[in-house]
Amino acid sequence: MTATSTLPTTAPVKAGTPGRPGLGATIRWELRKLRAQHRTKAVLLGALLGPVPIALVIHAQGRPPKDTLFGRYATTNGFALSLLILGFAAQWVLPLLIAVVAGDIFSSEDTHGTWKTVLTRSASRAQLFTAKTVTAVGFAVLTLLVLSASTIASSVLVGGHQALTGLGGQLIAPSTALKLVGASWLTTIPPTIGFACLAILLSVWSRSSAVGIAAPVVIGMVMQLVGAMGGVEALRPFLLTTPYEAWHGLLSAPRFTGPLVEGLLTTGAWAAVTLAVSFALLRRRDITGG
Amino acid sequence: MTTQLAVDAVGVTKAFGQVRAVDDVTIQVAPGEVYGVLGPNGAGKTTFLRMLFGLIRPDAGTIRVFDKSWDSDGVGVLDGVAGFIESPGFYPYLTGRQNLEGLALLDGGARPGLVEEVLEVVDLTDRADRKVGGYSYGMRQRLGVAASLLREPRLLVLDEPANGLDPAGIRDMRALVKRLAASGLTVLLSSHNMDEVEEICDNVTIMNRGGVAYHGSITDLRAMAPDPGHLLDTNDNAGARALAADHPGIEVERAEDGLTVVGQEAADGLTVVGQEAAVAAYVADVVRSGIVLRVFTPTRTPLEALFFMLTDQEVAA
């Protein structure tokens, strides 16, 4: 006799053993949930369209923001304009865009009371943790890529693609400038991943989406403040915000990549520690509520 | 040769701070059995079920499900097990169908047509494409059962499945659980409602303040139960009470104010406790004596009375 064969079903439901989901299936589930949420679409749309009015507004300024990196040329050169926006985005825009998903992906299960739903299926806590982390980090990188492409394209369209004056005063040919500007944006991938991991930790620890989303932005601002203060030079390499400035070396003469390597190490350490603590918290947690 | 138990929980203990939510509880459920875990709110039923599902780690004791344990088999313990704890949680921004399809992914996928099948079982086919955020409580409960059936379980664990439902919802949920149980599925059901458990279960553990107050069959429980109680109200309660002297098998007392009976409160009257035949003979005598009966209604079933006694709760009659 089958387990539910007397039920009014079109075909009997047979008792069996559910299979084990692969990591791919668990990630697909996370992606499905992400796709169904309005804020995910809003973040991607914001990353895509947001740079256009910003580029237009800055370009239309009568007096360029000379005290900002590449600000002097921002109204006359599209490459400089996109680098100015990069410097601005790294201050709080990127941590915020990242945290909208990474800071919510764990705590939303608490909000909806769904931990008990997903943890009573055949996926382990380790699988769910990995899937959520991969999804959050993947979304952060995707958002960054969309924002980069949109910023560079709109800046160049608005400001033109003349030769760029580098940080050492050297003139960089447009084709090289385009590559260097693209590479500069790409150098923010490691700290972006680092901030995503920090947001994940805050989401797991606090079980609150508000904390998971807002706290990384605040922490990022505090780190920038600390980094800008005198007398704490020894601390700067360990701050998660410092790698956001590593691209400066690409636009200098001669070029230098030391900060990029240091940034990778710093980000790697932040990611490893925050993810390890996050997983330990989740693995040991008693699910007494949602 | 020993039979493999569906659930073999021995000496399970869990404390939250100074509070022992579950204290040395042993529950064993045989395959095919419909087992009830009964107790008032806060008795430790849900904490026990959470430990069974691995949501909470026990401080002491062992839990084996179909001979697998969390320590040695990890999430493999849940092979063939499904159910929900308290009210089932779903993603409100997804439809009922999308929720089920997603949960099926976490089970390694469902065979074609299974999602439709389980939606039909719980009578949600017509509403499957609506977002769960708009579902009523009862619909979510039924979706919870559907999500459980999606795992094609051998053991179904339901924590207060009728909790929060309106009378029609309770009736439908009980009918559904009965149908599932009748099909041979092992069912572990928690409830604070004796009627629900009595109607469906073979064996029962009654929990109180984290411990076990009773463990055994419903048949044995019935044998322990006191006589049924009734509320009697007449135009001459003193006269009716005097007649009780001729009926040694029953006890007649003045009802306390505010005595709750089904659907109403009686401020006055008599409580009549005794075997049904003796009570019937007494009431017949009352009527024959010319006393007018205003109210004659059961106030508790024998098992309810026993449940209240075992769990130290105030007995209504």
Give me the secondary-structure topology:
The complex is a heterodimer of chains A (290) and B (317).
Chain A: H1 23-35, H2 38-49, H3 51-59, H4 78-102, H5 107-112, H6 115-118, H7 125-159, E1 164-165, E2 171-172, H8 174-186, H9 189-206, H10 209-228, H11 258-284
Antiparallel strand pairs in A: 1-2
Helix pairs in contact in A: 1-7, 2-7, 3-7, 4-7, 4-8, 4-9, 4-10, 7-8, 7-9, 7-11, 9-10, 9-11
Chain B: E1 7-16, E2 19-29, E3 34-38, H1 45-52, E4 60-65, E5 68-69, H2 70-73, E6 81-84, H3 96-105, H4 114-121, H5 137-149, E7 155-159, H6 167-182, E8 186-191, H7 194-200, E9 203-208, E10 211-217, H8 218-224, E11 229-234, H9 237-243, E12 250-254, E13 259-261, E14 264-266, E15 270-274, H10 276-288, E16 293-300, H11 302-310
Parallel strand pairs in B: 3-8, 3-9, 6-7, 7-8
Antiparallel strand pairs in B: 1-2, 1-4, 4-5, 9-10, 11-15, 11-16, 12-15, 13-14
Helix pairs in contact in B: 4-5
Question: Could you please describe the fold and organization of this structure?
Answer:
- The complex is a heterodimer of chains A (290) and B (317).
- Chain A has 290 residues and is an all-alpha fold.
- Chain A has one domain.
- Chain A is built from 11 helices and 2 strands, in the order H-H-H-H-H-H-H-E-E-H-H-H-H.
- Chain A has helices at residues 23-35, 38-49, 51-59, 78-102, 107-112, 115-118, 125-159, 174-186, 189-206, 209-228, 258-284; strands spanning 164-165, 171-172.
- In chain A, strands 1-2 form a two-stranded antiparallel ribbon.
- The radius of gyration of chain A is 23 Å and the shape is elongated.
- The two termini of chain A are 35 Å apart.
- The model of chain A is unreliable at 1-16 (pLDDT under 50).
- Chain B is an alpha/beta fold and 317 residues long.
- Chain B has 2 domains: 7-224, Rossmann fold (3-Layer(aba) Sandwich); 229-300, Alpha-Beta Plaits (2-Layer Sandwich), CATH 3.30.70.
- In chain B, 32% of the residues lie in helices and 29% in strands.
- In chain B, the strands form 4 sheets. In chain B, strands 6-7-8-3-9-10 form a 6-stranded mixed β-sheet, with helices on both faces. A 4-stranded antiparallel β-sheet of chain B has the order 2-1-4-5. In chain B, strands 12-15-11-16 form a 4-stranded antiparallel β-sheet.
- In chain B, strand 13 and strand 14 form a beta hairpin.
- The relative contact order of chain B is 0.13.
- Chains A and B meet through helix 1 and helix 6 of A and strand 6, helix 3, helix 4 and helix 6 of B.
